[in-house]
Structure formats: structure tokens, C-alpha cells
Write a structure and sequence with these properties.
heterodimer; A: mainly alpha; 3 helical TM bundles of succinate and fumarate reductases; elongated; B: mainly alpha; 84% helix
């Protein structure tokens, strides 16, 4: 391999992972994980400290900026992180290129659809008046 | 696939590694579906929320919620371990093993801390 002799160590391995690319994907997975460490802890602590979990209390909590903004961030970040993680699993275990592309595309559609439903629900809670 | 996968002695680090994928998959598929259902039910109110509430308080629903809580903490602690390892530390055998066991113990303790008071209140 004559090219290999002059290539940097990074250049030699670039593109050899199961996905064929992915530096940005790898980093995005870790950045979103750090965000979810904060947002997930916020969500569990909020649920524990809310006076009750009936619909009215939850809707008031999520209509106020202090609830609506972190929950919006949690929905977006958790869907992005979840999709990134599922892609790693699919890339590792599905070896046929056509199936892999199909499954990753399906996951992308489900994730974008699910996140949109969740965000639309949050918008209704915040802007829809008394639910 | 490496042929050497079958010759390793099973250890906590291997359990934690595969649990990271299993809990991540469960949190994504089950967790995000429930999160979306929950938010839609809150937005809809009335019967929609009553349906969610009934499912969540059903014994099977509680098993799913407690399981997801454990999966969340296991994935979170194991994720912190991965971040440490991404930085190049905690690869020494004993440290690595101890860290792996700590995530298992920690996720159990945190799950109990969340659910023991909640289940005490429900009854």
C-alpha cells in the first residue's frame, strides 16, 4: 500500500468504520448526551417535586416558560440522541447495505414524526388556552 | 466479526457494555413513545389523559415505568463511564471493572430513591 506510507494515521482509518463516515455523528452523540444529563435530571426532579401529577397541574407546569422551554429542549435532544444511538446499532448489526439504508431511513421518519407530535402537543399546551 | 468474541471470560464491563445498548434502545423506542403519548394526553386533557393515567397506574404500566427509570439511570451512569473512557482514562483493568460495577449499583440505588417514596404515596 504505497499511499499508506505517506498517509497520516487518521487518514489511514478514515471511512473504515461500519457506517463509512461519522466523526461529526460521534461528537453529536456525546454533546447531546451531556445536554440530556442535565435535561433528564431536570425532568425526573420536576416530576418528583410537582405537587401532583394530575392533568391540570402538568398543563400549568408545561405552559409556563420554566417548564415549556426545558421540555422542548428535552424532546428535541432526546429524539436526536435516540436516533443517533439507533443508527449506531443498525450500522453495527445490519450488514446488507440496502436493508441498512432502508432501516435508517425508517428510523429517521419515525423520529422526525414522533418529535413533531411531541412538539405540537407542547405548543398546544402553551398556546392553546385552557386545555 | 472478531473470532475472539467467544474466548473472553464474562465480566461486569461486558454486561454494562451491552446493557448500554439495550437500555438505550428501550429508552428510545419505549421511552420516547411514552413521552410523546404523555405530552399529547396532557394537551388533549379529559378522557385522553384519563386513559394515559389508567395505563400508567396499571401494575404492568408501573413495571414499564420503573423499568424505564432504571434504564435511564443505567444508561446515564454508563454514559458517564463512556465519556471518561473517551477521554482515555479508566482503561486499567481494576478501575474499569470497579467503574462498571458502580454503574450497576448506582442505577439500582437511584431507581429505588425515585420510586420508593412515589409508591409509598400512591398506596
Amino acid at each position: 500500500m504505497s499511499v499508506g506510507d505517506s498517509a497520516t494515521p487518521l487518514g489511514k482509518v478514515r471511512g473504515l468504520g461500519s457506517a463509512g463516515e461519522g466523526g461529526e455523528h460521534w461528537l453529536a452523540e456525546r454533546v447531546t448526551s451531556a445536554a440530556l444529563l442535565l435535561l433528564g435530571t431536570w425532568l425526573i426532579a420536576s416530576l418528583l417535586f410537582l405537587p401532583s401529577l394530575d392533568q391540570r397541574t402538568l398543563a400549568e407546569w408545561l405552559a409556563a416558560p420554566s417548564g415549556a422551554v426545558p421540555m422542548t429542549l428535552f424532546v428535541i435532544t432526546s429524539f436526536v440522541h435516540g436516533l443517533a444511538g439507533m443508527k449506531v446499532v443498525v450500522d453495527d448489526y445490519v450488514h446488507d447495505e440496502g436493508n441498512r439504508f432502508a432501516l435508517n431511513t425508517l428510523l429517521l421518519f419515525v423520529a422526525v414524526g414522533g418529535a413533531s407530535l411531541a412538539l405540537f402537543a407542547l405548543a398546544r399546551i402553551a398556546f392553546g388556552g385552557a386545555a | 466479526m472478531s473470532p475472539h468474541l467467544t474466548v473472553w471470560k464474562w465480566g461486569p464491563h461486558m454486561l454494562v457494555s451491552i446493557l448500554h445498548r439495550i437500555t438505550g434502545g428501550a429508552l428510545t423506542i419505549v421511552g420516547l413513545a411514552l413521552l410523546t403519548w404523555w405530552l399529547m394526553a396532557i394537551a388533549e386533557g379529559g378522557e385522553a389523559y384519563a386513559d394515559f393515567n389508567a395505563a400508567a397506574r396499571h401494575p404492568l404500566g408501573l413495571v414499564v415505568l420503573v423499568g424505564l427509570t432504571w434504564a435511564f439511570f443505567q444508561h446515564l451512569l454508563s454514559g458517564i463511564r463512556h465519556l471518561a473512557m473517551d477521554s482515555g482514562s479508566a482503561f486499567e483493568l481494576q478501575t474499569n471493572k470497579r467503574f462498571a460495577i458502580l454503574t450497576l449499583v448506582g442505577s439500582l440505588i437511584l431507581t429505588l430513591l425515585v420510586w420508593v417514596p412515589v409508591l409509598g404515596d400512591v398506596k
